[in-house]
Amino acid sequence: MRGRMYYDLAADTWGYEEKTAIQEVIESGRFTMGPKVERFEHAFANYFGRKHAVMVNSGSSANLVGVASLFHRADKPLKRGDEVIVPAISWSTTYHPLQQYGLKLRFVDVELDTLNMDVSRLADALTPQTRMILAVSILGNPAALDVISDFADAHDLILFEDNCESMDAELNGQKAGTFGDIGTFSTFFSHHISTIEGGMLTTDDSELNALARSIRNHGWTRDIPGDSGIYKPTADDFFEAYRFILPGYNVRPQEINGAVGIEQLKKLPVMTAARRQNQSLFQSLFQSDDRFIIQRENGISSSFSFTVILNPTYGADRTKVMAALTEAEIGFRIITGGCFPRHEVIKYFDYELVGKMTNGDIAHDRGFFVGNQPFDLRSQIERFHAVMDKACG
Question: Is residue 307 a contact partner of residue 139, using CB atoms and an 8 Å limit?
Fold first, then answer.
């Protein structure tokens, strides 16, 4: 799966603007987190209609900082042993911060057609110890965020959205990643916008914003708004410059990441439209063919990629299909991180399965995805369809 392919999983989306922005940073001599990052944060918050956006060095770090922030808020902080409802399918660092902070995971199966959490099972997952729902919109397709949000409100639960795969997706006119108390995004190379590495935490809660800014940066007070209320400044500027109030990390982004992000965000609507154009072609070729189960769009997908699950009824051999794709120089991979309880790392977790992960297992064993990119992929998608048709004939 290495090297240049006819139809690869991801492609470079940079142009002259991003390279010029990097050169400006180099010429400025300011490379560590500074005004470019701050400007990107403001632009990102504005684009998504949130009060606050905090940039970090990856979407994984955004999840980590977000979970940590919830342990330090003044009112009803999370505690070790609290339970979190999570979907069976997501990326590993959706789950790892929960384990690292001593939370218990309650896994809920996904819907086979949307690949998102099966919200009909939320009530079964709820216990007196449940404190949070972690909603994930898989590969650009919004989860049932309206239903999840209503359930969280009805049971006084924190709603945490891992939206790292679904930037610019929408549900009921609202951007995915903005339904929760915290929403996280990734700006990794292959994602909807790329800052090389990078992530963003968004929130409307000023306390969580202040906590996140401290935790991402050593746990000190330097980047916290003065009126945040999470600490009382002293008159000693010498001490205040290096005053530590929280157990923190160093997960800061660099100025290059922020500068590139400013330019990439400007292009996001056009890039999303191109992805959706490719999605329309993919759907027209695959959605009426019972041999293949593809994602049913919920709301407006930002179409990270194209998922295919080989319908068990027809018994196609995934190994043979993958061999045919490799021969045709078409890249593919497991759907997100597969069914997470199937991985060996689960032995380190405190968790329960809420019923069987039937659909998660089918997606794990019989599914894969191919890439989508913000360019015209007609010839690539048509070749993919031809290969699949022949391999599953």
Answer: yes
